[in-house]
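Q: what does this look like with zinc ion bound?
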Amino acid sequence: MKTYKDLKSVSYIEPGIHFAEKLLDVQFTRTGKNRYSAFCPFHADTKDSFRVYSDGKDEVKFHCFGGCKGNWDIYDIIMIRNKCSFKEAQRTWADYLDIKDFKVFDGKSKSVPEPDEEPEPEDSVGFIEPELDQEIIAALDESARFYNELLLSDEDRFKDVYAYLRRRGVGTDLIRRFNIGYAPPYSDKQCYGRALIYQFLPRFEKDYTLFRPFFKGGMVRLLNDPSVKGYGYYLQQINNGKSGAFSSNYGDYFAGRMVFPIYNIEAQVVGFTGRRPNNRGVRWLKQKTGESAISTKSWLYGIDKAHRHIKHYRTVILVEGIFDYFVFYKLLQDQDKPIVVSTMGSRLTGEARSILKGLGIEHFIVAYDWDEAGRKGIARIASEVGGRVHYLGGMAEGQDPYDKLKPVISAISGFSLKHLMAGAKKAQEKTDKPVNVHIISSGKPEHRDVVFEATGNETAPFLNKETESSEYYYSTDDFLPLLTYNHGNKPMLDKTIEQIIKLLEARPTKPQSASIFTIPVKFLQNEGYADLGAALILWLRLVIEQQKRKRIIRETDETLAGWLNTSRATISNYKSRLKDLGFLNIKTDVRPQRLSVRYFPRQEH
Ligand SMILES: [Zn+2]
């Protein structure tokens, strides 16, 4: 009786090559004994990145050294191409070889998920943020215009999208003004989630390099990328629709979502956010950072429309969501004072803050939700700008917000809040959600004296901290000699960790030497940090490497062990500890594994 393992043997490499050529529609070139290469069928390949060889264990491997970086066996490639289960793949291969005494193994493939294992996933937001170049900006701009024109072209076809947007107060005028678009889903029988790709396909096919800015700009996704969450879901979209390297292997990143282009202060498109026109699954999708060129850190939705007015009034209104934004925008636009931006979440990043700082802001009117995340966001802004928070709370029944806000109006550069609050009240009726307003003032002292009382049982947060740094700066040279596990015994290792913690706790707010790495203030405030123990050594070394290379680390345990002077077992032990505590993202299903450091445990978000 033969098993699936037997049929992976190098003695089947020749029938395997014939079979794979037909299955994958590729042409292999023999490059040596038991070695073949071809253009990869799973990404738009410009050289022969797809290799077949026998590994040290007499097993035939299929490996893509290009975009996919996948490592597969014969069953995996059958599963990917035929979108079938591991069991079916075993039968297909045994049948092809005409082997009758075959026993199907009941388990799962290590590399490829079963076809309906995963729903469409949420994408994690990465850590590394490189710069956009002009080609990428141009591609993002074209994408924005394309999706907008597509949505505007056929109100009937996209009636659900229109209905959703109208319910949220967004009509055709705003769709035009903000270039809002729609990317039809993978289930769409006209474009199979590839509307953007189809639009520019003739261009990509003529010149491969013109595809690059769309890929780098995060507008398309490689469907065969084992490192993304939901690998199984995207695998099933391969080869739907038109055939060809681009249209088979890639899909629109935002397929199934309305797309909102994000403009920077110079009115260039620097990214997108997407939302489903219904409430199924993951509703909002930010662009993927990490290995694409997109940075989400400086995103302020609406800054292109607001910056002149913000500068004039020295005041900005921050809201959490895009639809909150439109409520305030419409209202303020009527007064020609659109000083509102959305921080797209309840957090003002350092990058976004410095953009606002450049506009000479003194007052932040923060209309975040009064939940834990919102409160944290408000406290953080107050501490970072060194200002005070005046909490105005939600409105009591029948209360006119204008009365409550009247005393502030003269204080903030003559800016009138009357219409703003009237509109906020209207929005409140619709959502049945209290509109909380907070004023953070770091302006002239006489402007700071306006204090408001909270309504109901809420305690007014009254923050008056000095401006704090958001990051600490450490010298790499101080740390590297300590980042090793080779101490002979446990007490000595503990001593080293104590030393490391002492260095960390010095909390330097300015760089002390040329070679530095940084750690967010919040990391040291986080209690989880104390639980890391000796895993801290591995974590710090990864932080340093990650910041130095400005990318996710791709190394084997052996390399990590080499860096830290220890065994692979130690590395894998501490790695799983960091992963369990939520301080590390690890993709071990690819070789070499990919690691990226997380600064706070996952549950903190
Ligand atoms: Zn590939």
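The pocket of zinc ion is lined by residues 40, 42-43, 45, 49, 64, 66-68 (CB under 6 Å). The CA atoms of residues 155 and 162 lie 7 Å apart.
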